[in-house]
């Protein structure tokens, strides 16, 4: 019995995201860092999925790509929905600091 690529690919991509989060949390602080993390997660997941099921590597890579894009979009949505920290000014240059 073999492991399915559509299962092991997203699982590997998620594992890569968690490992990179523990190793370097600073990558999650900028859009460029998020793109680097998403690229590494995609290549790790697609590579392992291709090794697991060589005949269906394209389908598995597409599933991993969609999975990473959904995670990326949900992470950005989660960041946008959070309220600013206390003391953050939302005004312009004429607004005095609290």
Q: What would you say this structure looks like, in words?
A:
With 98 residues, the chain is mostly helical. The protein has one domain. Helices cover 67% and strands 0% of the residues. It has helices spanning 5-23, 31-52, 57-81. Helix 2 packs antiparallel against helix 3. The longest helix is centred in the C-terminal third of the chain and has 25 residues, at 57-81. The mean pLDDT is 87.
Question: Main attributes?
Answer:
98 residues, 3 helices, 67% helix, elongated
Q: Topology, pairings included?
A:
Blueprint: H1 5-23, H2 31-52, H3 57-81
Largest sheet: number of strands, sense, barrel closure: none
Helix content: 55-70%
Number of helices: 3
Low-pLDDT stretches are none
Counting helices, strands and paired strands, the structural category is mainly alpha
Q: What order do the helices and strands follow?
A: HHH
Average pLDDT, to the nearest integer?
87
**Number of beta-strand segments:** 0
């Amino acid at each position: 019995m073999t492991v399915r690529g559509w299962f092991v690919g997203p699982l590997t991509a998620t594992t890569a995201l968690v490992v990179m989060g523990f190793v370097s949390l600073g990558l999650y602080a900028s859009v460029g860092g998020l793109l680097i993390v998403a690229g590494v997660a995609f290549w790790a997941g697609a590579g392992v999925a291709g090794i697991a099921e060589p005949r269906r590597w394209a389908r598995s890579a597409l599933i991993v790509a969609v999975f990473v894009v959904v995670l990326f979009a949900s992470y950005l949505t989660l960041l946008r929905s959070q309220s600013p920290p206390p003391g953050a000014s939302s005004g312009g240059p004429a607004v005095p600091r609290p």
